[in-house]
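Re: the multi-chain job from yesterday

Posting the exact lines I submitted so nobody has to dig through the queue logs.
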Amino acid sequence: MNKIVANAQEAIKGIQDDMTLMLGGFGLCGIPENAITALVELEVTGLTCISNNAGVDDFGLGLLLKKRQIKKMISSYVGENAEFERQMLSGELEVDLIPQGSLAERCRAGGAGIPAFYTPAGFGTEVAEGKEMRMYNGKPHILEEALTADFAIVKAWKGDRYGNLVYKGTARNFNPMMAMAGKITIAEVEELVEPGELDPNFIHTPGIFVQRIFQGEKYEKRIEQRTVRAKDE
Amino acid sequence: MNKIVANAQEAIKGIQDDMTLMLGGFGLCGIPENAITALVELEVTGLTCISNNAGVDDFGLGLLLKKRQIKKMISSYVGENAEFERQMLSGELEVDLIPQGSLAERCRAGGAGIPAFYTPAGFGTEVAEGKEMRMYNGKPHILEEALTADFAIVKAWKGDRYGNLVYKGTARNFNPMMAMAGKITIAEVEELVEPGELDPNFIHTPGIFVQRIFQGEKYEKRIEQRTVRAKDE
Amino acid sequence: MLDRNGIAKRIAQELQDGWYVNLGIGIPTLIANYIPEGINVEFQSENGILGMGPFPYEGEEDADMINAGKQTITALPGAVIFDSATSFAMIRGQHINLTVLGAMEVAQNGDIANWKIPKKLVKGMGGAMDLVASAENIIVAMMHTNRKGISKILKKCSLPLTGVGCVKKVVTNMAVLDVTENGFKLIERAPGVSVEDIIAATDAELIIEGDVPEMKV
Amino acid sequence: MLDRNGIAKRIAQELQDGWYVNLGIGIPTLIANYIPEGINVEFQSENGILGMGPFPYEGEEDADMINAGKQTITALPGAVIFDSATSFAMIRGQHINLTVLGAMEVAQNGDIANWKIPKKLVKGMGGAMDLVASAENIIVAMMHTNRKGISKILKKCSLPLTGVGCVKKVVTNMAVLDVTENGFKLIERAPGVSVEDIIAATDAELIIEGDVPEMKV
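And the result, structure tokens for all chains:
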């Protein structure tokens, strides 16, 4: 089995206008930088993007927003992005805000063949509007449905040609669940390794969830809130 | 934080007659051998045991069955155990059989605060009797509820005093989900290591799910179906 | 008439390159021995491994490495080990391309029964109900009749069901049958077995169109 | 009157040995600087880490190691990293002992609003809705009034809710308030703040029993 493709351009082949994409990452941490650049170049429009955040004005999904390639965002937190806020408040961009845990679980459910589940998150808020409610253990819960996508695009640290992936640090975040939920899942990695180099006991995303994999050309890995302490502290 | 207790006897303190226990393992692989031995010695009875299998006549949960300590088994596969079959067919033992994937997911759901979810498994069978049915994606699904336990008892390879656990090979199986679903979770490990020895990127069960941990005295690790090929094959 | 290995060999011809395959206990397990040249498939075992290899050499068995049949196994390079919830996420989420399992009974509407004989044998369904409820592509590997010569290919299952309307194909020691909207269609005969033999051994109605070719195994 | 650090310091007194704690963005983050002597707690950040340590030394920042506020962080020995689904399994499954978060408004029935000002500010709820819907023990850290001096401690929230009836305690720059069945109960005064000052700055009704002690911070 060899799922390796040459580059980001090859990897995103088949992504068309009006499709639904999932994109991994939390803030700018663990986002598929190279695939996003390729999507900007591809000039696809009308996209529905499922991603916890919407990038910043000049990086991450912000690049697609700036070029008006996104029709709808499904996210949990969209601060730190002035262009996003402008498009949303002016009604140019549809936005569906979802509690972060429900977003993660709905992606996992989509990949795991669980069409719907009950969660307490959002009961009594706007999020619950139009959703079924039921009491469990004396507490109200709402029914949330699974999310899937035409393409899921994730970023990992290392991967092999079977599509097995390992993430580094908190760059893992939403990537494993989204990898499960794509009809076609594209993984970009910092380093392609030979099968067997990744310990089978410690693989985060089994290759069965991944259809295409490539090594990203370069990684900027921008930091949003550089916070440090002085050495003598 | 130090969750280490001296031994299996210490670890199972508080387990009383008529409680519900979850026990990790698939067949005899990855079962909490030392804790089971301690439960036999404790002579608690009326237990409801949630475990994928029921051991064999003289090992694993079979030991508790033989001493009639188990009132009810919640399992997916209970072959390989003559005493089990006898007790079940005679009506001495209550048995709730659950599809294996639903069992795993119901334990995970119990640990994850998801009180119920839809699955296609079991539709049109005895398993679906009395359960709600709903169509999703043109296919019938049934509503399954979460499982939790007074105590969950799992077996890992290595662990530290925070309760962080790492499993080896297919001995992982049900252990991670059951660790999540116990009101009190006991982990027995082959080796206790210092915090920091387990790579934070590659811990299977985060310590937050574990309340007590101990190093098992010895591990027999019995093999049910020893299957080999000759060296010259 | 095929033996167990013959059935496995015939089903192996259905494998396609790049497929993820879950093999049940019994005859299905034997399929791994007959993968056609040039075809790469990965075997999943629902207790938590993908990329299952051959049985270990004598003396190299590891009690922590078993398959869903509790047999000692090895892992190939590129293999992955995971927990049971993840394993059934693969199955329920339809990431597995082919599921092969045994059965006590199969009916012409695609129903399957393989987990219980009331008051006699209750081993449990294990992962079978999840597998049959989820898989798009299910092949049953089984003997055409039981030891008393009674057909296991039925108009309607008599035993408690494992799944409804899910079986796509059945390969027995006598025949290959496709489950169509109108019932079982006889696709191939086992070597030395006539269409009449098959009809005689089958409770279900069979759709037979033109000459039924003999299997090539 | 307390400053932001004072509020954090007061809340830190609520920590108990062995607790797992989730700290929200803003004032709650500062609590990590004031853990009482002899108390060991582990901090969870919902983007996927348990056992969060101090900020990295200059030059040692790792873009792949951030907290939910997107700040660069370090991991302590014994730390664990996990995906977002597992992180919220911990939260939703009530494995976290204490959640501290900021708010725009808190009402006397325990309602909280902190994610949206219609037509003005829509940042999203992030993990806050999961946290408040699940946690047994929620403390809100906030200023008693907004910049215009208008009370954020209300009879009823005016903004879209984050969660209903979930807040257990509020620590502001002026007071510590418990949310009881009958509404806010004034538990402590900030240094130099009188009961009358608090009543004047508060929209909600306050239950005041006997002498209200001054906080020890």
